[in-house]
Amino acid sequence: EVQLVESGGGLVQPGGSLRLSCAVSGFTFSDYAITWVRQAPGKGLEWVSTISGSGGTTYFADSVKGRFTISRDNSKNTVYLQTNILRAEDTAIYYCAKGTSYANYMDVWGKGTTVTVSS
Amino acid sequence: EIVLTQSPATLSLSPGERATLSCRASPSVSSYLAWYQQKPGQAPRLLIYDASNRATGIPARFSGSGSGTDFTLTISSLEPEDFAVYYCQQRTHWPLTFGPGTKVDIK
To answer: Chain A: residue nearest B86 by CA?
Structure first.
């Protein structure tokens, strides 16, 4: 069974940092891109970042560029989203999702981890 | 950035009725559009990809159509479990973008 499990969320002060993890199982990890999507309370979905299967290519939304980084450890089947200089508007549920084999759609999602940025 | 607009914002229907949801892209996204369903407290689920292809395990009552700038998700006969929020997403250009969503609720 394909599974993605996020962790690392929590309460952080503005300007702080968190490292989110996405541990995956049930498929050949290095064959697929992984994407982070977030959802602010009561709002819609916002794409955050994508990393290719090899880890050699990354993409970021303008809203997080320069503050967030993404990486993957293919030996641990884990993707990391390092979030820095956090702002109140980064408060959201952060989902990681597996990319489809054919395109940048997301066909399996984790349950999400909640990040709250507040003083 | 490609902007996706969804209409209506809310669709109030009864079980058994047909639901027609719209997603408009600006500029064109060719056929590179997906639809997702999200229920309260759950992660999104991929329903349709490349405008008209059902994802694995998606019932046949869900269908997608369109190309270019205008797309439609149709639910032929609403089941109780279909009441949810539906989002479209394009993958033509970075950044990936989602529409604001259409909520299908019970009339």
So the answer is: A44
pLDDT for the residue A27: 93
Interface test with B, best of A47, A62, A105 (most B CBs within 10 A): A105
CB contact under 8 A, A44 and B95: no
pLDDT band at residue A101 under the 50/70/90 scheme = confident
Are A45 and B50 within 8 A, CB to CB?
Answer: no
Burial class (CB in 10 A: 0-12, 13-18, 19+), B23: buried
Of B83, B85, B96, give the one whose Cα is nearest residue B1. Answer: B96
A65 inside 8 A of chain B by CB? no
Judge: B46–A103 Cβ closer than 8 Å, yes or no: no
The Cβ of residue B10 has, within 10 Å, a number of other Cβ atoms equal to: 11
Nearest-CB residue to A107 (from B55, B95, B96): B55
Q: How confident is the model at residue A102 (pLDDT cuts 50, 70, 90)?
A: confident
List, for residues A3-27, the tens digit of each pLDDT value: 999 999 999 999 999 999 999 999 9
Q: Report the C-alpha gap between B99 and A14 in whole angstroms.
A: 28
